[in-house]
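In practice, a research group might receive sequence data for several interacting partners and want a quick structural hypothesis before committing to experiments. The following worked case mirrors that situation: the sequences arrive first, and a predicted assembly follows.
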Amino acid sequence: MIYLDNAATTLKKPDIVYKAVLDAMKNGGNSGRGTYGAALEAANTVFSARKRIAAFFNAERANNVAFTSGATEALNTAIFGLVPYGSEPVHIITTECEHNSVLRPLYKLESQGRATVSFAKADRLGRINPDDIESLVRPSTRFIVTTHASNLTGNLIGIKSIAGIARRHGLVYIVDASQTAGSIPIDMRNTGIDILCFTGHKGLLGPQGTGGIVVRDGIHLEPLKTGGTGVKSYSKSQPEEMPTLLEAGTLNSHGIAGLSAAIGYIEETGLLKLGKKEESLAERLYRGLSDIEGVEIYGDFSCYERQNSENPEGGGKKEAETPMQGRMPIVAFNVKDAESGEVSDILAEEFGIASRPGAHCAPLMHKALGTEKQGAVRFSISHSNTESDIDEAVDAVRQIASEF
Amino acid sequence: MNGNKTETLYYILFYNYTDGIALARHLKESGVPSKVSTVPRDVSSACGMAVSVEPGDLAATRDIIEKSGIEIEKIVPVERRVFKRKPISVGVADAGCAGNAESEGERHAPPSRQA
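A structural hypothesis for the assembly, expressed as tokens:
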């Protein structure tokens, strides 16, 4: 199988990830639930992971990191946590590029009368203008929540500009890094991100069921869950200190061990090196699909043109200082008027190529792109893909387009 | 050239993946040919999975649905294009990759139809 659905989950993990999970399952007790060897083994694993993640995203300290089951839980924790029950209704700003993991919590707050939501519109290339976000700010605005990159188009959002807007207006800024964590550098403090929500099983190469929320010092969230913490057991309320505040119940220390090992692999191999390979493969895919008559591609790919024009003598590819300067390694497309699911099924059944059709849990993005009815076929790349994977995928789409 | 040849398949739609996978498993165990497919968007834009069967297997499928008690949303006939791949001739050699890529043999194995 040629796996091109890495935006859903990366299928191939480094061997050390499998080993770390297995070791933790064999040797780890329950983190924070005792002082005997096995419990301490788990506690040490979790602490090391927390420390590593804080450094990886340049957060202030390890205690800013709380583990969750993934980005969805992290986003729910952030969004609901900033609007406690009984508080005055607030205004929230987001974009049309968001995944349902952002949209549905916001819609729920709206339906409960706890918030009103304004959306920055995307243009036909799926781009967001940060100035539009600033124009939506009201006196009652409490926070801005945006994705770092669209899971459909792969376009990056200008999070530094948006963080500046949040800072100027005294707003909290939540970033959904589901598509970017582990694939491009994220620097919370220098960017001005207040709350970062991430998943462990995509670009970070960890196991499913892992992820987290990184909360800047000084921001209080009302916890989504309450329960056992291993500390302050006679208190009726959840301990106020991070990360315990957001970590009720037994942690997934087995998965966290794998996530930590995966981040270690990325650090050792070099995030930029891995990212550059993804970028190169994505550009190859984009150019191959662009040449096929009847294929329409969605998103802003102007960064590839810019890189080439900046280095016309260098074989068409500028050596970027950072990978993914303009986008993530995702190419979404349609073949003529064919239904995206039909194309995706043919890719899987006839060519052994895994892609993702349909709506991608991004309904507003599809509306903005005009693909609400047709959906789109999404290819998403990992550094574990090869040039021959890309060429076979392009050839397969060419065959399909010639028949439709 | 496959031309515009079409075939009619019956798509069984579900409210969730759990019921869909359960039916696919029941059909497989009973020897009824079926395929797990994407939900056709002209039938529903809600995404998710469907199980498709050929017209000759519809009666047996209905029987299994009834006996298993699996909840389905609906069954709809859908006309789909018949597509058969031509051999691929790609000349670009694998430049190697980071991580733990599958072996060439695994990666280029012929695709198999799903359950």
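Before designing any experiment, note the following. Chain B touches chain A through 38 residues (CB under 8 Å). Chain B has a mean pLDDT of 77.
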